[in-house]
């Protein structure tokens, strides 16, 4: 008998985990059976099946979905108001199966919009529900600390409520700080001190106020106080038109790595308006976005060096050196150095600059030099003994805690969570390219830096493949934008939640259309908002110097936190 064997069929050689993560959609029949005792209706969403749930049973339903169906990622909570009701929408998915999504719709009466809190099930709901209360006016029964989060406590009204008077003058009062430590948490032989870090401080990466209670040099309690940069971006997007006026706002959220922001908006609008994007434009989008990811990671690493040992002359300037090269490339491509506005619905605004060969050569020169530059970062930073002392085993964020707070991006992957929207819910041209999702198991400040440095190398691999494709693409097939109507008016009631992988993590957009050329509701799911909410878990019990390092390792941008 011959020992020659037939080649394996193609589908048997596929990595089972790879295939598992791309399994399309969730089993709606199984969900219906699981929620049969709770669902009082169904709703149609473009991205996921939606179930209408009573406000006094939502906590039980969320716990059931987490424990019985594996929905361990509460990615977003969207509050909104109609003429006849309020709604609290919960978008849930799975860290290991991103395409398995479900939306829970909780209708609430206009006279008493009270919903049961899901904070006991997912800690990330703490800040979500506070924001919903602050901006829309929905109250959450059982919430441990339901107060405003973006606006001052004395603010009158809710800016996203339909009856809000935007012309009413506001008087903001100042309140005296109180020690947040309860008596049973204070040691009789110790003395606590309240230390205000920020809102204007070099270590806060923006206008952030940390109310920190110290016991000696140890952090006994820390409460992030946000909202100093709140500009009601969601309301401004609701007042803009789909076609041209919303995408430019997105560059102002995470302004250090803002091209993924444009893609998040474009992906959501293209979903509800059923707009196709040409393959050539997808390659351009993918290449530009990975350059944008590099912008964010270079800045994150260089500013983190300032945080942990004040190194301005070496690491910070090395990071700025490499970031400038990327900015020059993106300026050639988009015409701008910061607020790029390169994306258009259905594609991008234009092709590569002429002469094409010169631009491609400039990109390749940068990529050729990048490995040696990354080695320099490791020599100067991750291999530095002082840096290691400051970052190893500090700011520890265990995987279960990271998931509980909805952490994503390098913060989650630094805790060993293998989750990346580019791979797990493919969009653009990512699914056709060879690259790897980077994870580290250290769960500490050091691991998060390693993830970002390794992701720069993965971005380079993606860009190089995109350049090869762009270079060989037939000239008569270089379509940069599909034919999009001048005025877009998606059908009333169309709803979707779509996300992309930004430099900071999962950036999601919820949109509800009302038949006009502007969205009735536009919700931004900020990765920085979620990641920052986990800071107390990382910092309490450590030294105040470790608090600064932990905050820097999160790589937050307050324009993204506050929106």
UniProtKB/TrEMBL annotation:
Sequence ranges assigned to domain NADH:ubiquinone oxidoreductase 30kDa subunit in this UniProt record: 52-169
Compartment(s): Cell membrane
Catalytic reaction equation(s): a quinone + NADH + 5 H(+)(in) = a quinol + NAD(+) + 4 H(+)(out)
GO cellular component annotations of the record: plasma membrane
Chain positions covered by the region annotation Disordered: 1-24
Domain (NADH-quinone oxidoreductase subunit D) ranges: 313-563
InterPro entries for this protein: NADH_Q_OxRdtase_suD (IPR001135), NADH_quin_OxRdtase_su_C/D-like (IPR037232), NADH_UbQ_OxRdtase_30kDa_su (IPR001268), NADH_UbQ_OxRdtase_CS (IPR020396), NDH1_su_D/H (IPR022885), NiFe-Hase_large (IPR029014)
Membrane topology: Peripheral membrane protein
GO molecular function: catalytic activity
Domain of life assignment: Archaea
Biased composition regions of type Basic and acidic residues, renumbered to the chain: 8-24
Keywords: Cell membrane, Membrane, Multifunctional enzyme, NAD, Transport
A Pfam family reported for this protein in Swiss-Prot or TrEMBL: Complex1_30kDa
Subunit details: NDH-1 is composed of 13 different subunits. Subunits NuoB, CD, E, F, and G constitute the peripheral sector of the complex.
Family: In the C-terminal section; belongs to the complex I 49 kDa subunit family.
Protein name per Swiss-Prot or TrEMBL: NADH-quinone oxidoreductase subunit D
């Amino acid at each position: 008998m011959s020992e020659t064997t037939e080649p394996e069929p193609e589908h048997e050689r596929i990595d089972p985990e790879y295939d598992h993560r791309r399994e399309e959609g969730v089993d709606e029949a199984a969900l219906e059976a699981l929620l049969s005792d709770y669902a009082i209706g169904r709703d149609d969403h473009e991205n996921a099946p939606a179930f209408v749930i009573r406000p006094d049973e939502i906590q039980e339903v969320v716990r059931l979905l987490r424990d019985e169906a594996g929905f361990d990622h509460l990615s977003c909570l969207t509050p909104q108001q109609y003429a006849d009701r309020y709604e609290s929408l919960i978008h849930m998915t799975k860290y290991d199966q991103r395409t398995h999504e479900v939306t829970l719709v909780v209708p609430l009466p206009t006279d008493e919009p009270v919903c049961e809190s899901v904070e006991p099930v997912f800690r990330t709901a703490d800040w979500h529900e506070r924001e919903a209360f602050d901006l829309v006016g929905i109250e959450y029964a059982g919430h441990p600390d339901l107060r405003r989060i973006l606006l001052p406590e004395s603010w009158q009204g809710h800016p996203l409520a339909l009856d809000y008077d935007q012309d009413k003058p506001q008087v903001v009062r100042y309140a005296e700080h109180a020690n947040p430590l309860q008596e049973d948490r204070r040691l009789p032989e110790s003395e606590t001190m309240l230390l205000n870090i920020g809102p204007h401080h070099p270590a806060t990466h923006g206008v952030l106020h940390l109310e920190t209670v110290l016991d000696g040099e140890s952090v006994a309690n820390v409460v992030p106080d946000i909202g100093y940069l709140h500009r009601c971006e969601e309301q401004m997007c609701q007042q803009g038109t789909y076609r041209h006026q919303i995408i430019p706002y997105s560059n102002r959220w995470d302004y250090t790595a803002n091209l993924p922001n444009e893609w998040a908006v474009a992906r959501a609008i293209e979903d509800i308006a059923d707009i196709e994007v040409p393959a050539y434009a997808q390659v351009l989008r993918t290449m530009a976005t990975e350059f944008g990811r590099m912008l964010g990671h270079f800045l994150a690493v260089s500013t983190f060096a300032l945080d942990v040992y004040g190194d301005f002359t070496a690491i910070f300037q090395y990071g700025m050196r490499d970031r400038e090269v990327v900015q020059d490339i993106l300026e050639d491509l988009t015409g701008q150095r910061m607020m790029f506005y390169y994306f258009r619905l259905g594609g991008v605004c234009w092709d590569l600059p002429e002469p094409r060969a010169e631009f491609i050569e400039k990109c390749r020169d940068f990529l050729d030099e990048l490995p040696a530059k990354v080695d320099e970062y490791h020599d100067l930073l991750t291999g530095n003994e002082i840096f290691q002392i400051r970052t190893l085993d500090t700011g520890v964020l265990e995987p279960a805690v990271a998931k509980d707070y909805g952490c994503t991006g390098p913060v989650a992957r630094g805790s060993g969570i293998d989750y990346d929207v580019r791979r797990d819910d493919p969009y653009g041209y990512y699914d056709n390219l060879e690259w790897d999702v980077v994870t580290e198991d250290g769960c500490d400040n050091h691991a998060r830096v390693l993830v970002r440095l390794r992701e720069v190398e993965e971005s380079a691999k993606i860009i190089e493949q995109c350049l090869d494709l762009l270079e060989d693409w037939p000239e008569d097939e270089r379509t940069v934008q599909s034919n999009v109507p001048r005025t877009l008016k998606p059908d009333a009631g169309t709803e979707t939640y779509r996300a992309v992988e930004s430099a900071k993590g999962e950036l999601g957009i919820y949109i509800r259309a009302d038949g006009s050329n502007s969205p009735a509701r536009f919700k931004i799911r900020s990765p920085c908002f979620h990641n920052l909410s986990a800071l107390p878990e990382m910092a309490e019990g450590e030294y105040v110097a470790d608090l600064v390092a932990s905050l820097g390792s999160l790589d937050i941008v307050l324009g993204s936190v506050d929106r």
